[in-house]
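anyone seen this seq b4? input:
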Amino acid sequence: MSTHPTHRASFEGQMTPEKTDLLNADLERLFYGYRAFTSQPDQMLSPLQLARVHHRILYFVGRDAGLSVNTLLMRLGISKQALNKPLRELQAKGLIEANTATHDKRVKCLALSPSGILLEEQLSSSQRTLLGRAFAASPESEAGWRKIMSILAAEPQAPAKQ
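predicted toks r here
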């Protein structure tokens, strides 16, 4: 099998109206699927005056307690400026704690507070449930879905603006 960039180049060269129509339908499924995936967390975040960026921060800090702000920036693929406001809001609401690293006083390490752990669990469990139901409805598609998501996640991103 060819490598991903070569495969992409050959696929783009073979674009036909039929393939374009299929890919447009796939885009619609992706948009509608993402809407379903984010709907329940959005409803939980709204009364707290929080948004999806806050959920992403809570999720990644929850997966790796003690991670540095710089590591979080790299995982989210955003600038310090873009992270600053939502991170401060989460700290002000007592959902995230920032402590100085023991190995380097210049490094801030992040962790969820007990209320942050609870909120992150509520937000992400609704999404795990949705994914679980989808995989149960089509178990033969689960590995393919993971492969496609891995390919998309590996695509180069535009550098974050500083």
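Residues 7 and 92 are 47 Å apart (CA to CA). The two ends are 39 Å apart (CA to CA). kinda curious what u guys think
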